């Protein structure tokens, strides 16, 4: 399916976009929260944070068993990793999973695009940034969050698995947060698949050779990550985990 222009897409796919077209802020809400000069006003910020949770829960309430995919914001279309992301989005949608990303450019866009082209449900959870950025055009449901930590809750709460494509600090942050939640059994039965052995292999070598070797993590912790080059394998790993749960979400 060729890309539809924004208006056509919105009316055709019935997309909902929440807080997308806000002006680019000179200072983000996250920045104000973290600035100590504003501490006297912090108690009142709780109401704003609360409202963002309410909005997220409200808009995502009908989503269940999604697969969240993380990956670089910087990879251009028509590159091997972009094509991999697009293939992944398509395969996940084909297997019936709603697909959730950070709603931005790069591999987030690739995955949303693949899901959309395959006729699946494509969700983008964007983040307010200090520079202008819209949600990519391939989301059916797009929500722009002000607070990173609220958005992160949504990524876990409405997903049954994570897939990580290659990426930088943002992707690594999201990967290790998920990994810690599984390691500490805050969430269980939650597969984390790393797609791309050439990219992820050296990280796993370091985890085994340094973290396990020096006792910072246990050997079993490494098994919480599953690495593959195959999109079909990634989808199968998620399917097997779901089967073990009897098709239910036991988290
Ligand atoms: C830097 C650029 C765009 C930033 N825009 C983002 N929009 C939405 N989500 C983002 C963005 N940047 C990071 N993220 C989150 O982190 C992951 C990607 O970060 P990485 O450092 O590129 O690996 C991704 O999964 C998002 O959830 C360029 O235009």
TrEMBL record:
Pfam families from the UniProt entry: Lysine_decarbox (PF03641)
Annotated family: Belongs to the LOG family.
Region (Disordered): 1-35
Annotated organism of origin: Williamsia limnetica
Gene Ontology molecular function, alphabetical: cytokinin riboside 5'-monophosphate phosphoribohydrolase activity
Enzyme Commission number: 3.2.2.n1
Segments of skewed composition (Basic and acidic residues): 1-10
Enzyme class: hydrolase
Name the UniProt record assigns to this protein: Cytokinin riboside 5'-monophosphate phosphoribohydrolase
GO cellular component: cytosol
Keywords: Cytokinin biosynthesis, Hydrolase
Superkingdom, natural source: Bacteria
Catalytic reaction annotation: N(6)-(dimethylallyl)adenosine 5'-phosphate + H2O = N(6)-dimethylallyladenine + D-ribose 5-phosphate; 9-ribosyl-trans-zeatin 5'-phosphate + H2O = trans-zeatin + D-ribose 5-phosphate
GO biological-process terms attached to the record: cytokinin biosynthetic process
Keyword Magnesium: no
